[in-house]
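ESCALATION

Customer reports they have been waiting on this structure for their group meeting. Please prioritize. Original submission:
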Amino acid sequence: MSNLEIEPGAAPESVLMTTDILDNLDQMSSSLEEIKSISYVTQEECNEIPNNENFDYSNNDNEVPPTEDDFHLNKEWTSKLKHVFILSMAGKPIYSRYGNEDKLAWLFGVMQTLVSFIQSSDDCIQSMHAGDTHFVFLVKKPLILVAVSKTKESDSQLRYQLNYAFNQITSILTLARLNKIYEQRQNYDLRRLLAGVERLIDHLLTFSENESSVMLGAVQCLPLNASIRDTISSAIVGACSKIKNLVFAILLANNKLITLVRMKKYCLHPADLHLIFNLVQASESLKNSESWTPLCLPKFDASGFLYGHVSYLSEDCQACLLLLTVEKDVFFTLSEAKQKIVEKLRRSNCLEAINESLAAPLESCASAGFTEIRHYLYKCKSTAQFYQPNISPPYTQTKSDLTEIYKRTHHRLHSTSKPLKLLFERNSNEAILAWDTKGFELFVVFEPLVDTSTAIVLVGRLLNWIKKREEKFFHLNAPTF
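Update from on-call: job pushed to the front of the queue and completed.
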């Protein structure tokens, strides 16, 4: 590791906000007051938007459709390993991951009673354990979120997932509007405003359970040569630099970031980008036409909307472009800019490069020469980006086992009672090393017979290997309009 002058993936300036997801569930950007001076969408204007009626939140392949027979003794319902419930502070049902909220009204009432009882003692309920079942509560006024889980996820990991669900609701309504609704009517049925949004929440919960990006508080980039990524960024800057009050331009594909161009001084929080990923992945309708939708990014500003022009580049390149602005009447201006971007990318063969990267599987550990390593996660803290190789045997058919290993190890490394900087453990199935440094986090799963000294040597080689390829694996430049 002596050849590393600086950790792989580090850059002088980042397009993403540096964050530690463990400590920043409620942290907001400090730049909001400044950006509001450039005609940011006001709350009064937000109230004129009739619940995003021009946007389709449907088509979630992971959704389990509710049935008329859903109730607390239904075997299909009780067999689920994890339930998530959302209710108002008054106990009004808002969301249930499985089943029908109306048939579970009694259960929502019990949850609200528990929260109120503890609050009457000037305390706040965090969790309860009954055998192998965890009841985790997140009270975020004016809502209460509850996870009932038999999985091996920690309470803190379940709480992150609940926070994401809360952010998903905020992204549709804004926190300001949500608070105003319940200030005026405590018993308001929020489902009237969230019709169809439950599909986004369903998809987001699955995303937060299965994607390492949520656990790490980071984003993975689509591997591209640095020259290609720079050309794509330059094409966006050239087409958009004269458009007033364009805040972010984001190009992504397959839950991976291709490039992010931003207004000077402003960065995007990884949690907000995860919401954008979820929106794109959960909405098949986006592939059919250009869309125009208000979108609140809670970590950027929970009180107002950005307007988003959302479209895929072309029929022969399934990368999605989002142009986010504070202006509500520039759909056609952004549509023209999008066409200019596509023309430039086609002339420079960037569309082909994106397609080739999407079609090519990530390099596996074995093909990279690390036969003793099965898989790893590497996160650069300063840029909030991470890289992982392709999943290979023995986890090809059991990805959930690998996910569980990482969640358990991450929890041990970042335990609130006894945090660790370095962890190495070995069992009959695998050996695991986790390392938390000032600049990066690394989680490595080895073959079970690897000893400590060999693991250290392999980690040094691995970091040097990533360092040599950092321009391909990470978004190192921070282009601005």
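Sent to customer with the following note: The longest helix spans residues 155-173.
Escalation resolved.
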